[in-house]
Amino acid sequence: MPIVSVIVPAYNCESTIIETIVSIQNQTLFDIEIIVINDGSTDSTLDRLMTIQDKRLKILNYENSGLPTARNRGIAHATSPYISFIDADDLWAPDKLELQVAALKSHPNAGVAYSWTICMDNEGKNFYPGVQASYQGNVFSNLLVCNFIASGSNVLLTRQVIDAVGEFDSTLKSCEDWDYWLRVARSWEFVVVPKPQIIYRLSSGAMSSKIDVMEKYQLLVLEKAFTEAPSEYQHLKKQGQSYIYQFLTHLCLTRAKNKGAVTATKNLWKSINLYPKTLLTLKTQKLIIKLLIAQTRNRVSVR
User: Fold this and answer.
1) Domain check: are 20 and 41 in the same one?
2) Last residue of a domain, one of 179, 201, 223
3) How many separate domains does the chain show?
4) What is the domain extent for residue 221?
5) Which of 201, 222, 240 is a domain's end point?
6) pLDDT tens column, 90-139
7) What is this structure's pTM?
8) Per-residue confidence at 300, pLDDT binned at 50, 70, 90?
9) What is the DSSP secondary structure assignment for residue 14, as one 8-state letter?
10) Distance (Å, rounded) from C-alpha 23 to C-alpha 200?
């Protein structure tokens, strides 16, 4: 039996899927199974996958049903005591699985291991700082006010955790990973590998429309979490909402091409209004400076 089942949801990812699979094949932990869920791709994704010669690779084809359902289908086929997920455009450092398995074995009370993240542009040429949190143990309160896991390509979970928590919520069109980590964190401890091991690809496309979707579902996920959270966590709700609008401000300034500064201003104001103490954080102060620079550039371009 393999030690880790790696689940790869794949939908129309012909330009990145091979690079992602190679990063899995290059793991220093060799005893793994790679389960690719081809989620109804209409491009050459499947053709490219069929060129890979690796006995550890399983390719399963389904009609398109979305990312959460693809992950759930992968879970149903997984045979290992540990399970991890990676999106079809992200990459892992070679020692990602090895160090996360070691972290869980050395912390028997933990059910989840996560690592630090770095970001790269869509072409994989430029790299940027990502999330580097070090929360361990009971991290539920930390996750309520910040999704420090950062993506669905990060964590390694024990099979016991998944059996207890259940499936990803297939009704969510975005942020289903944050929802899942929150559900896990209510009952299970987390352990961190303090090393950048997740390489998250910053996608191109209509970011303005994606921001609208992300706002809707992030607020929905957070509301759901607080509805189910014990009373001692309820005071964190506005701080969690503030984090969402701070995050959306960052997206507007870095990835939204059309009217990004205008939308960023609205989101940053919402963030500060919900939780004024955010003004004391370095992250918010940096966002204010970036916003002022963007506004100045916009005025100059108009002239």
Assistant:
1) yes
2) 201
3) 2
4) 207-302
5) 201
6) 999 999 999 999 999 999 999 999 999 999 988 888 898 899 999 999 99
7) 0.94
8) low
9) T
10) 13
